Amino acid sequence: MNVVAFLDYAAVLVFAITGALVASRAQLDLVGFAFIACLTALGGGTIRDLLLDRNPIFWIDNPAYLGVAAGASLVIFFTAHLFESRMRALIWLDSFALAVAVAAGAGVAISLEQSPTIVILMGMITGCMGGLMRDVVVGDVPVVLKQGELYVTAAFAGAATAATAKLYLIETPIALLACAAATWVLRAGSLAFGWNLPVYKSTPPKT
After folding, report:
1. Distances (CA, A) of 114 to 23, 81, 174, 181, 191
2. Which of 73, 129, 151, 152 is 20 to 30 A from 145 (CA-CA)?
3. Which of 3, 41, 48 lies closest to 22 in space, CA to CA?
4. pTM
5. What share of residues in the chain are helix, strand, coil (percent, to 5)?
6. Which residues, at least 6 apart from 61, have a Cβ–Cβ distance to it below 8 Å?
7. Are the C-beta atoms of residues 80 and 86 closer than 8 Å to each other?
8. Residue 146 has what DSSP assignment?
9. What is the pLDDT of residues 149-202, one digit of tens each?
10. Segment 167-177, tens digit of pLDDT
11. How many C-beta atoms lie closer than 10 Å to residue 113's C-beta?
12. Rounded CA separation 71/57 (Å)
């Protein structure tokens, strides 16, 4: 298994767990668990592959990805009650999934010899779109849009790290490790220490 495939599997697994935890908070049935888990785990990579005209899409080419997501949803269906705080577990698992998925998306673009701009965009799409679809479907405010939090910014910084590393001819595994590390450090810092970007504040019009 090459490094990109490993990252794809890891991203699918962890994002599936976050999707199943969201399903547990929404008190869905087993089919609902599997649907939300698979949507979360496979959504970002599916959009990435469609945009890159990568045929067949990764989970159609290898249905084992679908099996990993469905299996994770089954396990969480019977064990979600063991998490002391599902929301806290969800947020931190999501930060890890983001880091791995951004690296996976950037890695796919690098393997297809795309430009640095496309590497960055594919990393961001792979990392952010699955969670966005998950939150919209269950009616939550998308994590990627939470006011002031570093989420899309963390994905951008991580993917940019990978693209920059490749420009300097750094080996792909090292570039992707740096990508995941940069993404997670920024996201974790936002969660643990309140790192954020300034938000727009409207002012009354002058009379």
Report:
1. 36, 44, 18, 22, 32
2. 73
3. 41
4. 0.91
5. 75, 0, 25
6. none
7. yes
8. S
9. 799 999 999 999 999 999 998 999 999 999 999 999 999 999 999 898 887 777
10. 998 999 999 99
11. 9
12. 20
